[in-house]
Amino acid sequence: MAVLSAPRILTSRADYPDSHTLTRFLETGGNDALRKALSMHPEEVAAQVDEASLLGRGGAGFPAGRKWSMLRKSAIAYLVINGDESEPATFKDHFLVERDPHQLVEGVTIAAYALQVSQVFIYLRGEFALGLERVQQAVNDAYEVGALGAKILGSNFSLDVVVHPGAGAYICGEETALIESLEGKRGFPRIKPPFFPAVTGLYGEPTVVNNVETMSNLPWIVLNGGAAFAALGQGRSTGTRLFALAGDVRRPGVYEIEMVKNTFRDLIFDPSLGGGLREGRSVRAIIPGGVSAPWFSPEQLDVPLGQDEVAEQGSMLGSGSVVVLDDAACVVRAVWRITKFFSRETCGQCTPCREGAGWIERAMYRIEHGGGREQDLELLLDLCDNIAPGLTWPPQQTTICVLGPSIPSSVHSAISMFREDFLAHVRHGGCPHD
Amino acid sequence: MSHFRVDLRQRAEELVALYPRKRSAMLPLLHLAQEQDGYVSEAGIAEVAELTGATPADVRGTALFYDLFHLEPVGKYVVSVCTNIACLLAGGEEMLEHASRTLGCAVGATSDDQLFTLEEAECLADCDFAPCVQVNHRYVRTTTPATFDAMVEDLRAGRLDSDVPSHGTLIRVRRSGGLRVSREDLAAERAGARSQREAREAKG
Description:
The complex is a heterodimer of chains A (434) and B (204). With 434 residues, chain A is an alpha/beta fold. Chain A has 3 domains: 22-230, NADH-ubiquinone oxidoreductase 51kDa subunit (Rossmann fold, 3-Layer(aba) Sandwich), CATH 3.40.50; 241-290 and 297-324, Ubiquitin-like (UB roll); 331-428, NADH-ubiquinone oxidoreductase 51kDa subunit, iron-sulphur binding domain (de novo design (two linked rop proteins), Up-down Bundle), CATH 1.20.1440. Helix content of chain A is 41%, strand content 12%. Chain A contains 18 helices and 10 strands. In chain A, the strands form 3 sheets. A 4-stranded parallel sheet of chain A has the order 3-2-1-4, with helices on both faces. Chain A has a 4-stranded mixed sheet with strand order 8-7-10-9. In chain A, a hairpin with a 5-residue loop joins strand 7 and strand 8 (253-258). Among the domains of chain B are: 6-65, NADH-quinone oxidoreductase subunit E (Arc Repressor Mutant, subunit A, Orthogonal Bundle), CATH 1.10.10; 77-156, Glutaredoxin. In chain B, a hairpin with a 2-residue loop joins strand 3 (133-135) and strand 4. Chain B has 204 residues and is an alpha+beta fold. Chain B is globular. Chain B has helices at 6-17, 26-37, 42-52, 56-65, 85-89, 92-103, 145-156, 183-203; strands spanning 77-82, 116-121, 133-135, 138-139. In chain B, helix 1 (6-17) packs antiparallel against helix 2 and helix 3 packs across helix 4.
């Protein structure tokens, strides 16, 4: 049974048709949290976020409080908000920027105050044309009511927020690539170390990069206290989280549910959530956490939706995406399409990723479309092993960023789980589903 | 002589002023160039180069990295059909084929009347309306061949002009308000807050 008793931390306004407007925002407690935060010392606000144990909601799941504390001794800093959501089948930041842009701006302002940053950039992917309009409007509104600009709400804190459009590049979701892009360059991830832009970020200055959903949690945390947030969920996974459920379910959508208390089965089958599969269908595979994640089988339906719980099963909660493949889906075609995506989006800096992505995609193409050979399976696994040696999870790193080592996940998973499907394609000389 | 229209040139200069370094305005300015010309033209590249201090070759090289910038002329409406995982499972490939027939152009090509360019898109983050279709980066949420065709008729008849403006992701984005505090005053404000905090920490 799904546990649906948690408060709506992120989606409290989302059901109103005018949820994106200043009027609705102010009628529903808008800026109350900002006012409270400004009455506290900055380090007290940061301490609340620490106590909340808020894990970053972008994909890596790094504790937001710890990301912040790396920066506290530094003098100059930028806060950059990552709204370049492009992990396939992830659409929860899209939901937040269109449905509640003021909540995002309030959260960003609270974060900037806690970090004592004077300049924020909100980077939104260019495909979010409406999102860009709404977030810019929310920023304009905030200037209008004194919630941004000089001496915010009568405090001694001033802040500028710039809304910045991306232009279509998956790799710009990687935080150092995003910084390069924000500097007006190609989105090439930067060489590590330093592993975090907190050391050398935008314009070489200390910079914190936080995700849209992470920021949208802050108003609630400030109003209700970090302890109240930490009381939700279990273990390291506290609070609620937005799950973007897609694929072969009756009710795909964005659902806010308490972390860990619910399982994949709850999310997929609860009538108020995914509503189950179409008549007569059953679950064949689940892709948790985005297409970079190893797949789950139906035996893992009862794994709780928590960061460590999913990691213990050899995958990741990642970006909060969950894709269901039912028994009518062609898993080979699904893998081919995923590898085509990586082949298209590799930035080309590192050889294993640049060459490997295309090679894997071509092998997957011929298996799916005709011309595949049985030995292609070993070739695929060998190529995967060259990109992520040992095919362990989390993967070994052979490249500057994690895009490359994400390519093997679906290939390795599907060959392990559905070898017979691949062989059937080879025997058939193409896709038996066509 | 500016290639950008007067109003666009003014918006461009305002954008450049938002950033500590003018090159950061590269992507927004390229969006403006595309808004004016329908694609990123040579003259647009030259103007962006002048505004950002980069060379034209550098601007072109940067623009080429990003899918949203078209370095060649495209149709009045760029129709993007997603075929990535969630859309694949919902018939995205079939939708793309259907779109090609309806629009009368191959994937990646422009229709003879210069009205439509068809693109196969990567995930557009609207997977609860799969297969996902955008026109000029506006979600049109037509998930069946029939609703797709009706949408195309509406586009042809100009009935969607308010929902689907012409090119330019920023065509309706206008910034009003701003910080209007000098960098020196801002630095002083931060320094004051820092010393207060150090005093608190010294007290324990």
